[in-house]
Design a protein that fits this description.
The protein is an alpha+beta fold. It is built from nine helices and nine strands.
């Protein structure tokens, strides 16, 4: 199944949920403002609307544009995005980053980026609860179909991707109108 099919199915399935009236807690959450890299992130805006304002996610935003995922991540979701910072992308060899940003490698870039996205709203509390229930670790299937492993390390939620890639959640629960962003300090790679 390709990304457009997944996104379309998710959009259709979630349209009905999006039309349901919000309760008071959801309404209050929509007025929440967080800061990422010093920039305000409004819970009433979608993932893309907020990400483009983050001074520490310029590489991620460029990659999302190159991968043609802007419409998907602007859609109704909900999505949970584990968003690598520019510093995290700086740890990736420049030759690899340049390669996946080429038009002919768009499918590979889409695979890497959708490996950082989980369907639904998964808060830090949800992750910690799943980790506890899993005796110290849990696995969650991403939008690209591969799984991420989550565990607690040194008081932080730690993610482990395929091929030994790792990251930590450095800022959790940045609420969006169509999901949640968790800022991470590494880029995770799926099976390739």
């Amino acid at each position: 199944m390709n990304l457009k099919t997944i996104a379309s199915a998710a959009a259709i399935a979630l349209t009905a949920a999006a039309c349901a009236p919000m309760d008071m807690n959801e309404d209050m959450a929509m007025n929440e403002v967080s800061t990422v890299g010093g920039a305000e992130m409004f819970a009433s805006r979608n993932i893309i609307e907020n990400a483009v304002n983050s001074p520490i996610h310029t590489t991620l935003v460029s990659a999302v544009k190159q991968a043609q995922l802007v419409d998907t991540l602007s859609g109704p979701g909900p999505f949970t995005v584990f968003a690598p910072t520019d510093e995290a992308f700086g740890k990736v060899p420049q030759s690899m980053l340049n390669s996946v940003m080429m038009d002919e490698n768009r499918a590979m870039l889409q695979g890497v980026l959708t490996y950082h996205v989980v369907p639904g709203r998964v808060t830090a509390a949800d992750l910690m609860s799943r980790i506890r229930a899993g005796n110290g670790r849990t696995m969650i299937t991403t939008v690209n179909g591969d799984q991420l492993t989550f565990m607690m390390m040194n008081g932080m939620v730690h993610l482990m991707g395929k091929n030994g890639t790792m990251a930590n959640v450095t800022q959790a629960d940045v609420m969006q109108s169509n999901g949640i962003i968790h800022v991470i300090d590494g880029v995770l790679l799926p099976s390739m």
